[in-house]
Amino acid sequence: MQRNIDTLTKTIHKYLERNSLYVENPPWEIRKSDLGGFGVFAARSIETGELIFRDYPIILGPRAALTCPPLCVNCYGKDNLRPCEKKCGLKLCSDKCQNSSKHQKECKIVRQWQTRPIPEELSEKLGKVFSPIRAILLSDEDKKVVRCLKAHISDQHGFEVDVMKKVLYLDVKEDEEMFMRFVCCVMDANAFEVIVGSENNQSSVKGLYPLGSLANHSCTPNTIHVFDNNQHMIVRASTFIPKGTEIFHSYSRVIWGTPTRRFHLFRTKHFLCKCQRCEDPTEFGSYVSAILCKNCKTGKVIPIDPLIHNGKWQCEGCAESINKKDVAALSSLLGSTLNSFTNDDVEIMLKFITTKLATVVPENNETVVELKYKLIWILGHERGFTWTELSDDHLLAKEKFCGELLALLELLRLGQCKMRGLLLYELYCCHAEQKRRQAKAGSASKTSDKSLLLEAADILMYDVGAPPEIKKLWPDEIKLREQ
Ligand SMILES: [Zn+2]
Ligand SMILES: [Zn+2]
Ligand SMILES: [Zn+2]
Ligand SMILES: [Zn+2]
User: What positions does the domain SET occupy (predicted)?
Assistant: First the structure.
């Protein structure tokens, strides 16, 4: 085992060196994890906010999901797509992308594999299954990196290769096919969603980050990861990490309750999380997955053992027990109600929180939290609810929700997580708008709350998606990197 750790460490170090990302005596090291397999650990104590590592995607490509719009295969832009002049079947957005050396190489291999022209209507299909083709063009050294990553070997993965052979009739050699199927399994286990492009023209793609993917999951992660302008992954400590502690990401949404998170992780990443938060029936006293008892009306119903699938749930107040099925039925009913709301239903949503929801679930239940989060992104942002259009009541509601969700994140021990950064900024904007209104009315304005803005700027540092007002506050070296 020791030798394997050494080989893996060397492979990763060399990969980072090739991408000019290696630093002497990094604060991380690869070790055997209690979760099975390998993990990334703190080689020394790491302070909150400290940079742990940067990583570069060994493969970056369009996502296969049908809901993703077609993208330029070179720059991931959405506009002015036109078929490649050399008829490889892919679409590009400009002469620059058409003539890029990257596309020339990729174009050549696809044309070599073609047994018949790829009609324009199948061009999108080819674009979506393109990531494994990219893996074929990696250097031998980079292929070695991919080979040492964890893969979910399963027949359900590798449909991309089936599309290449059976839909696009590409003549792929057997060894290439085997490697591409393996790459699909590695991507399935490890790929991250990456946002590319600027504010108004963002696309979502998937990237394989070798070191990033070695870090395991926890529903109480101790890191925050963001992507910069050049698709680098930047991983920083969201809490203090003592020496020897395992370094965790979260692959799930932190505001979901335990059954929802575990189901999602099982479906997408094929494992059952047993972290500290998943083990705790109250989720650190937050009661995110709890519902209210029908019998005593005020008691909170929680799972007796949250790690047992379909186990019994029980009221903390009157000890009445309930089947998991009944809890799940209520959750799915509330979930579908939530999904049926559109941006124009602001009043209905606000009322739903204080009436129906307040009688069936406790205040931090995932549906309530999700709804508040949704409202935070409508109020101040969407048409009809922009900052200047917002009523005083709506402004107050938004401010209140920001405060409540920030308190919940603290209960969940999430430290300087990304959602905290986003909420702090929204709260700062609420205060700024209130100040503008008070100044207009001639009344004394609230004291300055620059601290919210500064903390948000620190948490979201390097993030390509951060609001421009926040980016202005970054140190010059980071601003320069952005250009
Ligand atoms: Zn392009
Ligand atoms: Zn081409
Ligand atoms: Zn967990
Ligand atoms: Zn009860």
Answer: 26-252
pLDDT of residue 445: 65
Torsion angle in degrees (nearest 10) through CA of 122, 208, 204, 65: 40
Which ligand approaches the C-alpha of residue 259 most closely?
Answer: 3
Distance of CA 317 from the midpoint of ligand 4 (Å): 5
- CA–centroid distance, 294 to ligand 4, in Å, is 7
- In this predicted structure, the answer to whether residue 36 has a pLDDT above a threshold of 90 is no
What's the 24 CA to ligand 1 centre distance in angstroms? 36
8 A C-beta contact, residue 400 and residue 429: no
pLDDT at residue 1 greater than cutoff 70: no
For the chain, the maximum distance between any two Cα atoms, rounded to a whole number of angstroms, is: 76
pLDDT band with cut points at 50, 70 and 90 for residue 242: very high
Ligand 2 midpoint to CA 163 (Å): 19
- Could you give the CA distance from residue 459 to residue 224 in angstroms, rounded to a whole number? 8
| Ligand 4 centre distance from Cα of residue 413 (Å) | 28
Q: Distance, CA 141 to ligand 1 centroid (Å)?
A: 28
CA of 326 to the centre of ligand 3 (A): 23
- Locate CATH 2.170.270.10 in the chain: 2-56+209-249
Give the integer Cα–Cα distance in Å for 187 and 365. Answer: 33
Ligand 2 centroid – CA 117 distance (Å): 12
Could you tell me the distance, in angstroms and rounded to a whole number, from the CA of residue 278 to the centre of ligand 3? 4
**Count of beta carbons in the 10 Å neighbourhood of residue 403:** 13
Q: Which residues 6+ apart lie within 8 Å of 19 measured at CB? A: 56
Mean pLDDT of 373-377: 97
**Identity of the highest mean pLDDT range in 3-12, 223-232, 400-409:** 400-409
The percent helix, strand, coil of the chain (3-state, each to 5) is 45, 15, 40
Residue with tokens 């969700």: 405
Q: What sign does the CA torsion over 11, 12, 18, 23 have?
A: negative
pLDDT at site 2: 45
C-alpha to C-alpha distance for 373 and 229, rounded to whole angstroms: 26
Fold topology of 2-56+209-249: Beta-clip-like (2.170.270)
Residue 127: phi, psi to the nearest 5?
-60, -40
Question: What is the chain's length?
Answer: 483
